[in-house]
Amino acid sequence: MTTNGSFQLFSSSDDKPSLGLGFLESSEPPLPPPPPSIEVLSSEVSPSVKYTVEPVNLDGLTLLKGRVSTKEVLGLPNSDLVPGIYEGGLKLWEGSLDLVKALRSEIQNGHLSLKGKRVLELGCGHGLPGIFACLEGAAETHFQDFNAEVLRCLTIPNVNANLAEKSQPDNASEARFFAGDWGEIHQLLPHAHESEMNSEHGQATGYDVILMAETIYSISAQRNLYGLIKKCMIHPHGVVYMAGKKHYFGVGGGTRQFLSMLEKEGKLILCSFGHVNRTVIYSCHVG
Ligand SMILES: C[S@@+](CC[C@H](N)C(=O)[O-])C[C@H]1O[C@@H](n2cnc3c(N)ncnc32)[C@H](O)[C@@H]1O
């Protein structure tokens, strides 16, 4: 459903079951210029926005998530997203919970360790996968969202709430926060390169693990997202864990388009390791 350019997209875990994946607008109007890319300091938590915290149970693991009002934070009605203005970071989408479950099972099966790693969560919103990485001993975790307000009012308070209880000061993960569009944010991200990954010469710097959930719903944004991943992944052992839906009705994006773009270029190899609920989870390595 669309109201003044704002959309109800797919179901989020903040909504009580809304299994009708209604998204009825298909033409994509031109987007406004993106907001400037900035680093948001962890001290910049918004003091005026009401933030309440509640537990989320993930098959035995409890994380904390905040709840804020979209109207209070952004002055917008309670919509899932407003393309080019607000990209959905204030809601908790089910893919991010499914991604945490998948990462946890990868660690339990001995296929993944996050200890000492450089982790980047793209399109973080609440940031639960990145928070999980901090709790699992990542050396650095960088969180990115389109909207600085999301980081100030939700992501940073969520990181504080989860890490206050569980993290030891001497092995705390360094958490940093970056707002901006996928087409430009590489200029700010500390471990991104200026140019895209060169498979012959590799890259000496980058992130060991890139996490992202529910980020591939917009066809027009997929190319920039893919370009950013190539600028951020360390070569040759970098890995991306992504969670998404096969198809986001009405917007046309989804894992199918994203995978076919990757297959055409052949620079990244994809492995599907399954479904959690309606979410497909992929890991993706340098080819
Ligand atoms: C649907 S929300 C998902 C949020 C979170 N990962 C979750 O699953 O709960 C999409 C996320 O991608 C980010 N995003 C979408 N389009 C973007 C763009 N063009 N540039 C930067 N970030 C973008 C939004 O800020 C938001 O955090």
UniProtKB/TrEMBL annotation:
It is found in: Cytoplasm; Nucleus. InterPro entries: Methyltransf_16 (IPR019410), SAM-dependent_MTases_sf (IPR029063). Residues 1-36 are annotated as: Disordered. Its EC number is 2.1.1.85. Keywords: Cytoplasm, Methyltransferase, Nucleus, S-adenosyl-L-methionine, Transferase. Belongs to the methyltransferase superfamily. METTL18 family. This is protein-histidine N-methyltransferase. It comes from Hibiscus trionum (Flower of an hour).
